[in-house]
């Protein structure tokens, strides 16, 4: 493996669900927001959208948006943000993979900029990132109109090619350039990001497998 000098112009991009965490956290967040009862009574409306996605009739973006409309439409930003902070500070820790979190801490300790790039909701990932002094979050945003959630997505679902497009936008808007980058992901939604970075890793459980040979 190529040796990379210890520099401060290095970035480490981490997917969240399934990479840093042992499972997807969106459902747990939604339950935290509205309770099991409201989720269960809405199952007859939710399940058809999951089925359509599994049958590849609709995209994961459309399925996610439809479910968010069903469950979160009409909620105030203040209420959801309070729930998001509570979920991030009090519940996410039980899903974190220790070895992967240790890798994230390794990058921080070496002065690398750590950025979360996730298809999940930025609303609670930002609180988790603040808690752990992570440099940035690029994730899927919920639309609010006059402080009320519509349930629609304010950004494209941050998945696949969108991860790279959103990352490039983030770097351009913040006038940031990195000399070298690492990427960590666990699914096909991360492949474009792993192709983009200099050194990518697939995370399976708590094991890291190199995605490809490092490149400049």
Short précis:
By secondary structure, this protein is an alpha/beta fold. It contains 9 helices and 8 strands. α3 (43-54) runs antiparallel to α4 and α5 (77-90) crosses α7 (122-131).
State the end-to-end CA separation. Answer: 13 Å
Helix percentage range: 40-55%
Q: Describe the main β-sheet briefly.
A: 6 strands, mixed
Assembly form of the protein? single chain
In total, the number of strands is 8
- Report the principal-axis shape: globular
Poorly predicted ranges: 1-6
Radius of gyration: 18 Å
> How are the strands of the largest sheet arranged?
3-2-1-6-7-8
| Mean pLDDT value | 94
CATH class bucket? Alpha Beta
| Number of helical segments with 4 or more residues | 9
> Structural class, please?
alpha/beta
Number of domains: 1
Taken in chain order, the helices and strands follow as EHHHHHHEHEEEHEHEE
CATH architecture level-2 label: 3-Layer(aba) Sandwich
CATH superfamily label: HAD superfamily/HAD-like
Beta-strand content estimate: 15-25%
Note down, in words, how this protein is organized:
With 216 residues, the protein is α/β, with parallel strands linked by helices. It has one domain (10-210): HAD superfamily/HAD-like (Rossmann fold, 3-Layer(aba) Sandwich), CATH 3.40.50. The protein has nine helices and eight strands. The chain has helices at residues 26-34, 36-41, 43-54, 60-72, 77-90, 98-109, 122-131, 161-173, 191-196; strands at 10-14, 113-121, 136-140, 142-145, 148-153, 180-185, 199-204, 207-210. Helix 7 links the parallel strand 2 and strand 3 (136-140). Helix 3 (43-54) packs antiparallel against helix 4 and helix 5 crosses helix 7. The chain is globular. Residues 1-6 have low confidence and may be disordered.
């Amino acid at each position: 493996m190529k040796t990379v000098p210890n520099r401060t112009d290095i970035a480490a991009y981490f997917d969240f669900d399934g990479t840093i965490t042992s499972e997807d956290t969106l459902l747990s967040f939604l339950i935290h927001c509205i309770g099991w009862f409201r989720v269960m009574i809405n199952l007859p409306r939710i399940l058809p959208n999951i089925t359509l996605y599994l049958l590849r009739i609709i995209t994961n973006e459309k399925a996610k948006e439809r479910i968010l409309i069903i469950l979160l439409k009409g909620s105030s930003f203040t209420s959801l943000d309070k729930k998001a902070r509570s979920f991030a500070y009090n519940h996410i820790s039980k899903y974190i993979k220790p070895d992967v979190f240790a890798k994230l801490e390794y990058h921080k300790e070496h002065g690398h900029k750590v950025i979360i790039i996730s298809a999940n909701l930025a609303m609670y990932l930002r609180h988790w990132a603040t808690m752990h002094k992570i440099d940035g979050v690029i994730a899927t945003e919920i639309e609010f109109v006059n402080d009320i959630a519509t349930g629609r997505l304010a950004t494209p679902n941050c998945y696949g090619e969108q991860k790279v497009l959103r990352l490039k936008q983030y770097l351009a808007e913040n006038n940031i350039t990195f000399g070298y980058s690492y990427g960590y992901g666990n699914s096909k939604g991360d492949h474009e990001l792993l192709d983009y970075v200099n050194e990518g890793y697939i995370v399976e459980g708590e094991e890291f497998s190199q995605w490809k040979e490092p490149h400049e």
